[in-house]
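Hi V.,

Quick status before I head out on leave. The structure for the redesign project is tokenized and pasted below; the design run finished overnight.
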């Protein structure tokens, strides 16, 4: 894809990634910068750090923008004129969505609305990726497995509701304004840079602290029986790029490994990768009754349209997460 300026000179296509400093966002930046054929732009909140992006230097063009401010978003879109827009920015903490539901709903919906409105207002024609979540499906039963795109949406928390709204808002702008919107519903993704508050980095951080003798050799855990579909974040962001290159406008796709693993299996793999003996204790404060005992992705539609398949095995992902936390603990 080649884009021409008003003077007729060719310029490299421009990719704009919102939430570029985040877990998946920073990995997507790495992927697109490494391609070498794109001018890569990323949005950061005014107070975001550059920990995951500082190694890129001027290869990433940084825009500090509050996406909740429509005037700032309008100015951003007018300045960048992206050919590809990857919308990853969101309030993504489920716990916080319970504590501040209005903030989660308003933030996630209005940020995307401002981007879509600015796209229409300035007559732009980017390919737009709307990132939803497997949380949209909410309460699934054994009869629903594996979960495909036609599985009913039964949201269980305010975050999931906000993601359904983003999903439908993207679809509405595709139908009403002809925008090239592709929607994805990623299942659990793991890897280096993921912050605590999620099961894999929580386990890995504890293990790294135990190895460094900063914590007693006791792993505190919650419910280990639930089963989830885990994909390495580096495979996931590669899927995001393929979704805009090969995905059908207006389509919605599940993305995942199509396999489930229990949280106990995840813990056992991490323990095998550790260098010390650890005792497991159930922490009552970590026990959160789950209405979803198993979630596994039916990814056939996305694979058929894009040719994507995960390439990084679960053990390698867990090894990389543990090494990441070992470095953080040492630092």
């Amino acid at each position: 894809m080649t884009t021409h300026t008003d003077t007729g000179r060719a310029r490299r296509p421009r990719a704009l990634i919102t939430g570029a400093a985040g877990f998946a966002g920073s990995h997507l930046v790495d992927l697109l910068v490494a391609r070498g054929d794109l001018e890569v732009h990323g949005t950061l909140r005014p107070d975001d750090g550059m920990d995951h992006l500082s190694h890129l230097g001027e290869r990433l063009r940084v825009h500090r923008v509050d996406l909740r401010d429509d005037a700032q978003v309008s100015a951003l879109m007018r300045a960048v004129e992206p050919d590809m827009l990857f919308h990853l920015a969101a309030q993504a903490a489920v716990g916080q969505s319970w504590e501040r539901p209005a903030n989660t709903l308003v933030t996630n919906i209005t940020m995307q609305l401002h981007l879509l409105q600015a796209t229409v207002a300035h007559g732009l024609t980017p390919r737009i990726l709307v990132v939803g979540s497997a949380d949209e499906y909410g309460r699934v039963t054994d009869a629903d497995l594996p979960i495909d795109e036609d599985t009913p949406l039964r949201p269980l928390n305010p975050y999931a509701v906000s993601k359904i709204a983003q999903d439908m808002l993207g679809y509405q702008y595709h139908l009403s304004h002809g925008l090239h919107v592709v929607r994805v519903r990623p299942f659990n993704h793991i890897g280096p840079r993921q912050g605590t508050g999620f099961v894999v980095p929580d386990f890995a951080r504890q293990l790294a602290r135990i190895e460094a003798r900063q914590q007693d050799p006791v792993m505190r855990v919650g419910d280990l029986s639930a089963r989830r579909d885990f994909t390495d974040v580096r495979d996931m962001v590669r899927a995001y790029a393929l979704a805009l290159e090969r995905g059908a406008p207006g389509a919605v796709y599940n993305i995942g490994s199509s396999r489930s693993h229990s949280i106990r299996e995840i813990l056992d793999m991490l323990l095998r990768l550790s260098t010390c003996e650890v005792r497991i204790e159930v922490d009552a404060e970590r026990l959160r009754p789950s209405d979803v005992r198993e979630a596994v992705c039916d990814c056939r539609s996305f694979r058929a349209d894009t040719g994507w398949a995960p390439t990084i095995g679960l053990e390698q992902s867990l090894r990389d997460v543990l090494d990441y936390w070992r470095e953080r603990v040492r630092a």
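Above is the designed sequence. The longest strand covers residues 180-186.

G. will cover questions while I'm gone.

Best,
W.
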